[in-house]
Amino acid sequence: MNKFEFSGTGVALITPFKADHSVDLAALENVVEHVIAGGADYLVALGTTSEAPVLDEVEKFRVRETIISTAAARVPVVLGVGGNNTSAVVKQLEHDPMDGFSGILSVTPYYNKPGQEGLYAHFDAVAKASRLPVILYNVPGRTAVNMKASTTLELAAKHKNIVAVKEASGDMLQIMNIIRQKPDHFEVISGDDGITFPLMAAGAVGVISVAANAFTVDFSAMVNAMLNERFAEARALHYKMFTLFGQLFAEGSPAGVKALMSHMNLCDNVVRLPLTRVSYDLAKQIEDQWTLFNH
Q1: How far apart are CA 201 and CA 140, in angstroms?
Q2: I want to staple 278 with a disulfide (CB 3.0 to 4.6 A). Which of 163, 205, 239, 282 is the partner?
């Protein structure tokens, strides 16, 4: 078993909302208990899946404190700390309390569309400011900029506290180049649920997952099987979940997983604008597939 602190199944936690769109902290507690009981190895608070851009600062504080208090040190918790204003991210890292957190997840700056030099300088500043281990997050489908393997590797080589990258570029060759050349202290984490199985076969140490908010048991079992080189068992679980992977992301995330979690009575099927709930037809497909999944 890999001894790296952020190996295995990390869950990028949703933020449940009530029908009036207020944050449902009681439901959040239930989700945290659900994923820990299901075998999650660590949690991610206030990542993309949390709908953090539409939470105000008070809500963010309450969400992070609820996750920390409910997890109660049973698993590590990673805090999402990212943005497209480098000085603001640095200020947050220098001044915000980080009690209870084991690391930070920091996304590539979005909208500004920096080049590779800008990406390097941004994360160089983040690493210098962070008191906690840093997981880089490359998700060009959301940020409109891809951090190349060479930039990721240069950052990892310079900073011992940059310990991993959550790679969601979908570019298998790019990701394998990082795995092939990475320093010993640095690991690669899958950022795409649907390709976690092949990425782990190539050398990734786990995933930060959206889908594992819902079917944590099976996802964790697949990841653990891969970590222990039980490939046939992992392959069977991968294909068991495969159809749901596509459905949960077909009309945006976390709308898909919230539709399933509502069906599972874990939270209400509510997202905040500009996101909207999945269509009736897709929700029905997810529910029908969930029934097949459990038989």
Answers
A1: 23
A2: 282
**Catalytic status, residue 280:** no
Record the tokens describing residue 151, joined without a space.
């930039």
**Catalytic residue (one of 137, 158, 240, 258):** 137
Instruction: Dump pLDDT digits (tens) for 29-44.
Output: 999 999 999 999 999 9
State the pLDDT at residue 237: 98
Phi, then psi, of 42 in degrees rounded to 5? -160, 165
Look-up of token digits 């976390």? 254
pLDDT tens digits, 206-256: 999 999 999 999 999 999 999 999 999 999 999 999 999 999 999 999 999
Q: Which of 191, 189, 226, 182 is nearest to 206 (CA)?
A: 189
Nearest CA to 208 among 191, 187, 186, 224?
Answer: 191
Map tokens 């046939």 to a residue: 232
Return the amino acid letter for 275. Answer: L
Q: How far apart are CA 267 and CA 259, in angstroms?
A: 9
Q: Sort residue 283 into left (φ over 0), alpha (ψ -120 to 50) or beta.
A: alpha
**In terms of Cα–Cα distance, which of 291, 229, 236, 235 is closest to 260?**
291
Q: Where are the alpha helices (DSSP H) in the chain?
A: 25-37, 57-71, 86-95, 116-129, 140-143, 149-158, 172-181, 196-202, 216-227, 231-249, 255-263, 280-293
Q: Active site includes 166?
A: yes
Unique residue bearing structure tokens 């459990």: 294
Query: What is the distance between the alpha carbons of residues 243 and 282, in angstroms, rounded to a whole number?
Result: 12
Chain centre distance of CA 63: 16
Domain 8-229 indexed as CATH 3.20.20.70: yes
Residue 3 confidence class, pLDDT cut points 50, 70, 90: confident
DSSP annotation of 17: B
Q: Among residues 60, 166, 182, 258, which one is catalytic?
A: 166
Percent of the chain with pLDDT over 90: 99
